[in-house]
Amino acid sequence: MLQAAQVAYDTQLLLAALSGTLPSNVAESSIDVPTLTGKLSSGMSSNSCLASAMRSKGVPYPFTNNKDGIVTIFLLDMEGTVAPMSYSRKVMFPQLIAHIEDFVESNYPNLAAESQYLKPACARSAELKKAVEEDMADNYTNAALTAKAKQLLSAHMREETEKMSVMPYVKQFQGDAWADWVARQDAKVKTRVFSDFVEFVKERGARGAQDVSRVFMYSTGSIKAQETLLSHTQAGNLLPFVSGLIDCSMVGSKLAPGSYSKIRSHISAVTGLPKDRLRVIFCTDNPSEASAADTSGAVESSILVIRPGNDWVNLDTFMAVAAPHVCSFAQLMGSVRTVDYKGLTDEVKDLLEMP
């Protein structure tokens, strides 16, 4: 366990050194990149750790070794796993925040906003609740009252977004607002996902591969946000390769073990496959989510995904979680796949260098 955790930590260390994202308590001069690269490319590598962990769980690896009608379900987190975290934080969220007022202006009041955003928002803000009730009582005919309600709703959503709220109504609003912004850009916007994910989802999510494997997404981001991200990528529309999108409003928090039991039932229902024919592999960059999934007993294994620019994980946490790790989806496509660490960091360098 210690050895596998150390390999995970060293992988994170190498990616951070190559991308210039080392935490302040780690000196760049203390990292010998060529030596670390060589160490991770031979001997006790990420691939060998993954293979060993899968054997201990009774899960065949590579994941193509399906027998007895078992279908491998790859359940994937989005931010920091499929898409660079720096893309979400430095590109997507600024686009969203800049569009909040315009989106509210165009969508308040209407029944969808009232049920999906307005009621939950009013429950959390007495001032907004009072303004909306006064506007409603006047049948939205008083321009000053309507303007005040719009301003307070916009301010509330901006505040919740800036503090990274994961409340379902906030995530629903964010997804709809961002999708609206993207739709107004005349197809000029290209969202960003890791290139290894593109290759992976096209291979493992292809219609011809569905007797062996399928790909599902599970994100704190709403279904609309997931659809927008996956349908506008730099590699084109990837939605046809994804069997289903799941958000927290459907099954619950990613930190709750019970959510993963609901997901297994949901996947069984939408695929028509009995639960005992599913082999669920959950991939996430968040150690707490990996622990929750493993605790649930509803996934065969969680896998930590280490990416350049992700939040730092200390060695003790890697040891406590005891989940296998990868830093590229190429490692889920065969035990002989190698990782181009520099290429992985170069791919997101423009994002990491943004202020």
Automatic annotation (TrEMBL):
GO function terms (MF aspect): acireductone synthase activity
Keyword Oxidoreductase part of the UniProt annotation: no
InterPro entries in the record: HAD-like_sf (IPR036412), HAD_sf (IPR023214)
Leading EC class: hydrolase
Enzyme Commission code(s) on record: 3.1.3.77
Entry superkingdom: Eukaryota
One GO term of the biological process aspect: L-methionine salvage from methylthioadenosine
Keyword Hydrolase: yes
Keywords for this protein: Hydrolase
Protein's UniProt name: Acireductone synthase
